[in-house]
Design brief:
The protein has 440 residues and is an alpha/beta fold. The chain folds into 2 domains: 325 residues, Rossmann fold (3-Layer(aba) Sandwich), CATH 3.40.50; 109 residues, ANL, C-terminal domain (GMP Synthetase, Chain A, domain 3, 2-Layer Sandwich), CATH 3.30.300.30. The chain contains 11 helices and 22 strands.
Amino acid sequence: MRSPDIEYRPAEEIRRFQEEKLRETLRYLGLHSPYYRQMAREEGFAWEDIRRMEDLGRIPLTEKSDLQRCNARFLCVPRERVADYITTSGTLGEPVTFALSEGDLNRLAYNERLSFGCAGVAPGDVVQLMTTLDRRFMAGLAYYLGLRSIGAGVIRVGNGIPALQWDTLRRIRPDTLVCVPSFILHIIRYAEENGIDYRSFGVRKAVCIGENLREQDFSLNLLGRRIREKWDLALYSTYASTEMATTFTECSEGCGGHHHPELILCELVDDRGRPVAEGEPGELVVTTLGVEAMPLLRFRTGDVVRIHSEPCACGRTTFRVSPVVGRRQQMLKLKGTTLYPPAIFDVLDHTDYVENYLVEAASDANGNDCVSVRVGLRPRASPWGDEAAAVKDLKDRFRARLRVTPEVCIGSVEEVAAMNYPPMSRKTVKFIDKRKQITL
């Protein structure tokens, strides 16, 4: 499916297009949003004076805490026009309720139509959804609506239960999977243990959610390489959040998630909310376009990314979003070194005797960050016979890669797995921040 022509136009034309969409959004907020109308009064700016991208700096940033504190005041439609209620996953704090109108559901379907189109999903394809559609989860609903909009067949298996996943794959023979990439390794392990010839099932590609598949240079990271070594699938990364109501998905070139100019406006800022230099990482700030029920203006996503502005070999001229570098609120200052949890994950993921792990951050008596890692070891995979030697080796690996060493302790694989998959969690938990009770 070809994307709208605006995604292939010159950069200056895309900019003019987005500025007109921005003015439409501001007029809408000025008429319908109790929260943003109050902000305009308190900050002393007029909506009609915000006409260009550069003018956005006059408007304060919206924080996740604003959504938690003033949730109802973000609603721009009467309650009887709300068609669906969803909540965020709570990755960066308490979950937030979002309301969607019928128009928002149609926009969500259109967004995923574009997203899956980037990944080459076409009418007549059969897609196995390994994500939940319940528990007030936006993503699973969005995927279903988008795939139906394309004209693809959808198998709503949901998450977990490897036996059911393989039984469905055997019976219906889908060509595409939508899932968390680490779950692919989980079902491969199940297939190998149960004599299932999974490579003969005809699956061609996987659209992957929730975890990075690539390094910052767009080469496959260890997770992506492990999947490809086991199963010759075309892998497509996506980046999205409930608040954005928009998805950035890779095309076949695998060089970052493509921006859809008619759906979202993006900025990159530093810790003080100032624009970062071109090519530098910064926190992604978004303004949603075309959302009716709960549009957001200059919302801080908390995700630190890079923007790649050069045209893609696929023909699109829109910018592309890099894999997430880290989350602003999860930045760690360990013994004078600044790092994000994914850097710790990377060391552990590249250690072949580590089966699973959980990283925890806390504060010591002086308010300094301290980090500990609980690791489950693969049976007979460690080159040593005792846990103390494995702990020493892990500390050496951390020191070599990060220059600092978290505390390391060994737990059973079962114990760590229970922490990774707590009851009612919609995502795998690999990081717990006890400084603010944040989980990732």
